[in-house]
Structure formats: C-alpha cells, structure tokens
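Exercise 7.
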Amino acid sequence: MKKIILAIAAVGMTATATPAMADPPPWAPAHGKRAKQAYQPRYYTSGNGIRYWEGEDGRYYCKRSNGTTGLIVGAAAGALAGRAIDTRGDRATGTILGAAAGALLGRELTRGEVRCR
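Solution. The predicted structure, written as tokens, is:
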C-alpha cells in the first residue's frame, strides 16, 4: 500500500511541474528566447564582398577580418627570413625581429583598407 501511495505522489509532483516549462502567453512581455528571436538582422553584401547589416538602432555594421591569419603567416615567414638574413652568432635576434616585422606586415595586409561606419 505504501508503494502505491508513493507512486501516486511522485506522479502528482511531476504533473504539477510540467506547466511551468510551457511558453508564456503571447500577451506577456518578451524575455529570454522570444526577445532574442524578435529581431532578425538583414545581411547585405557590397560590391567588394564585404557583408554588412542594419542593427536594431538603425545603424549599419560590417564584419571584416581582424588580421589573425595574416599575423600568424607573416610571423612565420618573417622568422624564416630573419633567420636567413642574420647569419652570425646564434641568429635569435634576426629570428625575433623578422617575426615581429612579418607579424605586423601580415596583419595589416589581411585587414585591408575597409572602413566600417
């Protein structure tokens, strides 16, 4: 008899928790998932391949490369070039200076001249 009563009590506890997981009524203020889904930005592509969109505030925004790939490739190429140029001693100075110069140059080449305003 105790097992039956405990089983009924367990089913009753789970049945009362189910409505709390339901979506709120449509007239309730939007919070969480519905508030995030309310605004869907429109993406546009310019003639030179830059994607931009209009934000909720009416301003236009664009996404461009931050230069990380160029920084890494430039640093590697600069380190190799610096090591080849500096032939005296342990060649650490040439490697470090070449890596720094290559990283800066590669980053600027990847970022380009795009202005997002």
